[in-house]
Amino acid sequence: MNRTTLSLIACTTALAAVTAFAALDTPAASGADPATAAAELPVERTSLLCPAPSSSDIADTSYTSFTPVTKGTASGGKAQLQAATEQSADGTSGSRKGAGKKPAAPVLTPKSPGTPATGDTSGADTPAQVGTADGKYAPGWTVQETTEVVAGTGRGLQGVNCTAPDTEFWFPGASTAADRTDYVHLTNPEDSAAVVDIELYGKDGAIKSSVPDGFTIPPHGSEPILLSTLTDERQTDLTVHVSVRSGRVGAAVQALDDKVGGDWLAAADDPSAGLVLPGIPKDATDVRLIAFTPGDADADLKIRLASPDGLITPAGNETLHVKAGMTTAADLGDVTRGEAGSLVLTPTDQPVPVVAALRVVRGKGAKQETAFIPATAPVGKRATSADNRGKTSTLSLTAPTATSTVRVTASAGSESGAPVTKTYTVKSGTTLDVPALTPSGLKGTYALTVEPVSGGPLYASRTLTSTAAGVPAFTIQTLPTDRGLVSVPRTTEDLSLLQK
């Protein structure tokens, strides 16, 4: 995904950026003079988009909203999460599907920072959601969408973090195989239409699309695009590239399997020579790595597993060769062998940017369920998982290059309960599964907020599990930085002259 960077050309430009979206997270300049070094202030406005959860009539979906407490925020503000078919700013209908309909009630009303809020829907008619937050609600605002489907294609747990709008997305791990039904969900939060291109890359390279002119997503609208309608080719492993010609959208792939359940495939982090895919469940029975390099050069990657005891090389899967412009996959089997683990990919020689994801299976035979782990960015200053349910949640922390000390806070419960904070040390090259950390006197759901204190880069993910009819259902969400702070340069220059 594209990352918007903050210009440091003038103080007035930077101050205006304080009210920008949370995507404005890090300064573009490095080695700045101490007199103009950047200060970090809470963002004042942010936006999140949630895809339509399910086409199943027996789907039950929960939404959980949470804003961590952040110093320096304004005392006021508000947050709302409403259907993408709501009215646009000029009062006209925002979607073809919503034309003439009475605006739907919000699925939830966010609570004050530090306390989660929840809302529930059921059936196949729940639309995509567009969320905005400002003031004290904006910094680190997190919304989790979790759906339970008890039978049929994609049965199991399907979870996704609602994400900020952007202009480019990579999805290694999609498929047009006969037993898969994969959709790219595109949601447009703007008052004007967005034009979006979808490119598919298989084992032999780019696949010609039946829709070469792209897709128009109406204002405040959402469209699910079935991948199998874009090509006649049936391929097990695909990389999907979503690029926006005009506007911004939210994008996520819903990957549904006839036999082994399904889940949301979130966008992978930007192409990079080194990648971390954190939080493979210790009882995973099958792990498949899918990788793609968008450049002109082949990539050779060293594969290592960050285990509880250090970095190890999986036998028989020491390296992976990724041909330029082609999707490559490798079966890693039960690579974790009963222990917590995260995959660490590094170049064996010349660094070549790569995107990657894992398809993870738990269970055996007819009792299997699937989830995905895309390569992700580090936690940075802070990251949050919004929907946790006691012993069914596992937080995985990975420090691939240097020991990291991290503070983890279990928030108040959505109904009751007092926050609890603990500090953990994650040794270099290891993965630590945090034991159940829950609020004191918990009732309802709660959030887990991760804040590195010292040491090297830290990566994190959260696994949520449930069991229905003997199926070990689960979903995994990575936890990159919440982008709740914006860098604003200090200056010693007298700006009063600018006013004359």
Radius of gyration: 22 Å
| Fraction in beta strands | over 45%
Oligomer: single chain
- Summarize the amount of helix as a percent range: under 10%
Structural classification? mainly beta
Mean pLDDT rating: 88
Separation of the first and last Cα atoms: 42 Å
The poorly predicted ranges are 2-36, 86-101, 494-500
Q: How many distinct helices?
A: 1
**What does the largest sheet look like?**
5 strands, antiparallel
Question: Could you describe the 3D structure shown?
Answer:
The chain is 1% helix and 47% strand. The protein is built from one helix and 37 strands. Strands 9, 11, 12, 13 and 15 form a five-stranded antiparallel β-sheet that branches. Strands 18, 20, 21, 22 and 24 form a five-stranded antiparallel β-sheet that branches. The protein has a four-stranded antiparallel β-sheet with strand order 5-3-7-8, with no helix packed on it. A hairpin with a 2-residue loop joins strand 20 (299-307) and strand 21. It is globular and about 55 Å long. Residues 2-36, 86-101 and 494-500 have low confidence and may be disordered.
